[in-house]
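A further point concerns the way the authors explain their paired sequence and structure data. Since the whole study asks how a given chain folds, the encoding of that fold should be made plain. A single example would do more here than another paragraph of explanation. An entry of this sort, consisting of the sequence and the corresponding backbone structure tokens, reads as follows:

_____
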Amino acid sequence: MGKYIYEGVKDFNLDHIFDCGQCFRWTRQEDGSYTGIAMGKPVNVSLKESAGGDPAGEADRAGGRPGQDGDRPRLDLVIDNCSKEDFETIWKGYLDLDRDYGKIKETLAASDEVMAKAISGGEGIRILRQELWETIVSFIISQNNNIPRIKGCIENLARLFGEPAGEYGGVQFYNVPSPEVMAGLTAEDLAPVRLGYRAPYLVETARQVMERGGMDAVAAELAAARTPEEACEYLRGFQGVGPKVASCIALFGLGRLEAFPIDVWVRRVMNRLYGIDEKDIKGMNAYAAEHFGANGGIAQQYLFYYIRGLDE
């Protein structure tokens, strides 16, 4: 399988997207590209300055918006191990390429100097549209955990219990095990994954999913939720899913962009930049709803990326 090139991509930065805490199955390569897996497909994603042609003669092309973005050179998004059909059915949606992030940034920054500053530090962020079950598993694992360890746990889980998903760059990739598989495991079975207290949470959540009719039934229930709060209330019925994890699942697994997940980093940034007490979670949610509205989850990612850059 060859490469697919999406020309003239805007508001898109690989580090901002894949290193902002929203996903855990992507690895930065020495050349600045990222290799990872989503929807059962391993690929490599890179950005190249547009050369105005295709010297290799092997890549499909799709039109982004032509021309320059201010003084910046036009960038093309290159997805290796991707067909035109894969791009249209998987990666265009997964990478949220149909959404105008330039307009969203203008709206968020219009009357908020703090947000404008945060955006400047992570202007290429996009919210990935991730597979729901993998998002549930990932954010249960993420509790009280750091990103390198989260990534290691998910990879071990997939390698030990998931189905093979093909090779890329000489590496065999695996899918996260389905709820059907995980419901048949025990916490002891998961011991080699080194999940700690999270292991029984995953097993019980998988069993709850199956009791509710499987992931299709769960996804249908969540799709019927009228608000992110309703979706989060349903998600909190699963073992090990608290308010923050539920909000992350709503944002990253359901595409509820109003959701505003609050963790230690967000409490810190809302205190430091907006003067809200770190313990006042209700106040932070109220502020986000009033000032960020339908773009709360995108605003949260700008703030999260910004404060981590300051404090790490």
The CA atoms of residues 268 and 280 lie 11 Å apart. Residues 296-311 form the longest helix (16 residues).
